[in-house]
Design goal:
The chain is an alpha/beta fold and about 250 residues long. The protein contains eight helices and seven strands. It has a seven-stranded parallel β-sheet with strand order 3-2-1-4-5-6-7, sandwiched between helices. Helix 1 crosses helix 8, helix 3 packs parallel to helix 4 and helix 4 runs parallel beside helix 6. It is globular and about 50 Å long.
Length: about 250
């Protein structure tokens, strides 16, 4: 007997989905049959990357992927994005809060702008997306937000990032209680270090030390985060809500 995940006729919005983990989540949900909304912040190459990804997905299944540019740190932009999703799809079934930035620096050298920019995207952005997303989400839907092992361990030079990610995990626990009556499940994924362009900037000596803390002896793959998000949005996770799911190869800090 085989087990499959079928999200046909469902709509999933993934923030920060033009590259890296977000793009892999979009591809994974699309393979499961969902229509995907690829959000990007219209910075650098993100617009072109999002358009290229949507083109590939639509070539596989017509009219199954759309692109919306919106800076998640802008409350009005997020509200308009959610309204556009409702106009196009009638509502939202799954919200994946993936968008994030880093501005690493020790506390003594971190500027107020470096603190605030990370909080604005990584924490406030999740709040805005949940607030306005839930206004357009169908009952029985799901929210998955990306936390981080940094929010548990507290890496050197990441006061802003670790604080934001810890806040995201706490936020999901609260929201899960508030929307349970609608059958909406809310969880966070807590990745360790994942092999993405962002991880590639980690100096080799630091990577070597990190790997010593991981029993599986390697960093994660974007696919491993994406399939966890898919599971949490699927009927297979129907009794899981308010949880922080660690996907880190056994890294305990």
């Amino acid at each position: 007997m085989s087990i499959s995940i079928d999200l046909a006729d469902k709509t999933a919005l993934i923030t920060g989905a033009s590259q890296g983990i977000g793009a892999e989540i979009a591809r994974t949900f699309h393979r499961a049959g969902a229509n995907v909304v690829i959000n990007h912040p219209a910075m650098g190459s993100t617009g072109d990357d999002a358009a290229n990804l949507a083109g590939l997905l639509n070539a596989e299944r017509a009219n199954s992927a759309t692109v919306i540019a919106a800076d998640v740190s802008d409350a009005d932009a997020v509200r308009r994005m959610m309204e556009e999703v409702k106009e196009r799809s009638g509502g939202l079934d799954f919200l994946i809060n993936n968008a994030a930035i880093i501005r690493d620096r020790t506390l003594s050298k971190m500027s107020p702008d470096e603190w605030q920019s990370v909080i604005n995207v990584n924490l406030n952005g999740v709040f805005y997306c949940c607030k306005y997303g839930l206004e357009n989400m169908r009952d029985g839907g799901a929210i998955v937000s990306l936390g981080s092992i940094a929010g548990l361990v507290g890496f050197f030079g990441q006061t802003n990032y670790a604080s934001a990610k810890a806040g995201v995990m706490a936020m999901m626990r609260v929201i899960s209680r508030e929307v349970a009556r609608r059958g909406i499940r809310v969880n966070s994924i807590v990745p360790g270090v994942v092999d993405t362009a962002m991880a590639a900037t980690i100096p080799d000596p630091v990577r070597t030390e990190m790997l010593k803390n991981i029993p599986l002896g390697r960093f994660g793959a974007p696919e491993e985060i994406a399939t966890t998000a898919l599971f949490l949005c699927s009927p297979l996770a129907s009794y899981i809500t308010g949880q922080s799911i660690e996907v880190n190869g056994g890294w305990r800090g």
